[in-house]
Known about the structure:
Blueprint: H1 2-36, E1 40-50, E2 56-67, E3 76-82, E4 87-90, E5 95-99, E6 104-108, E7 139-143, E8 146-153, E9 161-171, E10 177-186, E11 189-202, H2 205-208, E12 220-222, E13 243-245, E14 251-253, E15 261-267, H3 272-288, E16 293-299, H4 305-314, E17 320-323, H5 326-332, E18 339-343, E19 349-354, H6 359-370
Parallel strand pairs: 6-12, 15-16, 16-17
Antiparallel strand pairs: 1-2, 1-11, 2-3, 3-4, 4-5, 5-6, 7-8, 8-9, 9-10, 10-11, 13-14, 15-18, 18-19
Amino acid sequence: MKPYKYMLTGLCLLAATWLQAQDVDQIVEQYRSAIADIETIHCQVAQLDTFVTGHVWDYQGELTLMRNREDTLFGFQYKASKEVGEEALYDGRSDFQIDHEKQTYELNTNPRDYILGSPGGQLVVAGLMYDQDADQTPELIATDPYFVLRYSYPDLEEYDVRQREKKIFLDKKTFLPVKVISRQVTLDKKQVITRIISDARINQPEDQQAFQKDFLTDYKMIVEEPDKDLHADLLQTKVKDFQLETFTGETISTKSETGKLLLLDFWEVWCGPCVESMPKVQELANKYGSQGLDVVGVLMDPNSQDSAEKMISRKGVSFTQAFGSPDLREYFRVYAIPQYVLIDQNGIIQQVFTGYSKKMESRIKVLLAKAR
């Protein structure tokens, strides 16, 4: 009887697995059908984000989405505002950052998906408009009063990002998302991004009016100065003497007293391009260190030293690491990272690179050759 018993057990397990797969497919289809019926939605959104640095963002706001089938960027328009920051409005063509208190706005006529990083844009829950994981089959977790769809994603080895997952909590009656939680582990520390949706109002005519911009005729448009010459007045000037504390407790100066060429690498642990390019910077240090190049990494957030040390250890980075400061950020105008500053043997700022560039090596070779 035992063989039959084991066979029966196996068949039961297969049946349970098949039924669960059927349930997942059905729930996903119900979810897709529910959001497909949405043309407009207005809701309250709670933002609760915990970052690897230990910082926590806890904000409340409101969001209006309207489907726009001609929009190639998102497939929808949005208007969003929270208790801090400006109101964000994307009308399918342009992005507006609106300050109602000052009655001003900034206009971006060539927006990209980065606009979701604005204070208002951070409230956008794209899963209310379309299934972002249409090519994946999630795991179904049934909890009262929600269906939970759990999606798992591959590790990003190059950034040391692991255990990536997203959970979508669906109301069992409407099959609409009421909560979305994304988690990942970076440098052994968790990052959790949570959006909680409440008080949803669907397909109401008044929400189409949210995208009217007539009031802007009484507002002043703020024109940002082009940033292509952001560092121009720093070039060919004597660098200011900043005393930087290294990870090991030593003090070094931006005003080189050793007669060496100095490359400063401004970075953060959460910055993917910073982490990705750091081994390339290490190659420069290895290749030209004996010829007179000093490389110093400048971590802009001192509170993330533990994570930074784990990252540089795993990446095999050995050049000196030091801490930045607000004064240093302002002086070198570190408004985007990674940023690299090249200071010659006489303490003259020769070049500033925003983002890693192969031109850095060429410039280093020229400056080293001049010093011979």
